[in-house]
Amino acid sequence: MPIPAEMELTIYVNRQEVVTVLCTPAKLNQLVIGFLYSGGIISGLQDIAMLRVCAEEPIADVRLRDGLAYQEPAGRTLTSGCGRGVSFKKDFKKVSSSLTVTPEDVLALMKQLYEQQNLFQRGGGIHCSALCDRSQILVLAEDIGRHNTLDKIVGECLMRKIPTQDCILLTTGRISSEMLAKAARMQAPIVVSRGSPTDRAVALGNELGVTVIGYARGNRLSVFSCEERVPAAGVTTGR
Q1: I need a labelling partner for 156 at 20 to 30 A (CA). Which of 89, 143, 163, 183 fits?
Q2: CATH code for position 176
Q3: Contact partners, residue 114, CB within 8 Å, separation at least 6
Q4: Mean pLDDT across the chain, nearest whole number?
Q5: Is 135 in the same domain as 193?
Q6: pLDDT band at 80, cuts 50/70/90?
Q7: 125 and 39 housed in the same domain
Q8: Which residues form the domain of 62?
Q9: Tens digits of per-residue pLDDT, 33-68?
Q10: What is the torsion angle, in degrees rounded to the nearest 10, for the CA atoms of residue 80, residue 92, residue 127 and residue 27?
Q11: Domains of the chain: total
Q12: 238 vs 226, which has greater pLDDT?
């Protein structure tokens, strides 16, 4: 049976080492761009003058555009996911969205996510996340690290000019506070997992206006924050 591939990728910005991430060797450009954007190091692709990823070394060499110096964000935090990655504390804008979903919408999307987990289906040991509208998956990423999957998604969305506002984020892993922060950075109003959220993720969801949905599997789900986006009667809440 195939087992998941794992590599160390060290990211340099303007020749300064930023972080070493343990990751699955796929969509590495997207991973780097998404990590820099999620951490507030860049505000978009226009801030990158050059990006070179060499899987053999393995390094990612990023040069910012002229006049833009690299300044390490304050508050490095070791993430709760796989590897030695870090997240950076940022003041995120509260998410404002009129998007609503039904439990049936959410459960149908989670079924799509399961069906499209190619690496997981072959050998297991892989997390998967997806950006969706109410009916279909728009972008999907797999990785050994939960947080890496979201960085790959946001990186791909920046590269393909896919808006992330008013979209739904699905993930197979638990929803932790750093996952919730990445969703807020994307201005995604709903985050769904077939697993559990943490108490800090729920608190952050209420603070930032993000609906946190956990245990979305079979024919049930639990809503932990901003329940108004799932107005259907009979929803099991986590309160």
Answers
A1: 89
A2: 3.40.140.10
A3: none
A4: 89
A5: yes
A6: very low
A7: no
A8: 7-88
A9: 999 999 999 999 999 999 999 988 999 999 999 878
A10: -120
A11: 2
A12: 226
CATH code, domain with 35? 3.10.20.10
Determine contact, residues 225/211, Cβ cutoff 8 Å.
yes
Q: Which of 23, 82, 128, 157 is catalytic?
A: 82
Cβ-based burial of 73 (10 A; exposed 0-12, middle 13-18, buried ≥19) = middle
Other C-beta atoms lying within 10 Å of the C-beta of residue 116: 14
Question: At 76, which helix (H) or strand (E)?
Answer: strand 76-78
Q: How far is CA 23 from the centre of its chain?
A: 14
Structure confidence at residue 86 as a pLDDT band (50, 70, 90): low
pLDDT attached to residue 148: 96
State how beta strands 190-193 and 168-171 pair: parallel
Q: Look at residue 13 and give its three-state secondary structure.
A: strand
Q: Are strands 127-132 and 76-78 parallel, antiparallel or unpaired?
A: unpaired
Q: Give per-residue pLDDT as tens, 118-160.
A: 766 665 678 999 999 999 999 999 999 999 999 999 999 999 9
Is 0.85 topped by the overall pTM? yes
What string of DSSP letters covers 177-230?
A: HHHHHHHHHTT--EEEESSPBPHHHHHHHHHHT-EEEEEEETTEEEE-S-GGGS
- What are the backbone dihedrals phi and psi of residue 25, each rounded to the nearest 5 degrees, phi first? -75, 70
Active site residue 82: yes
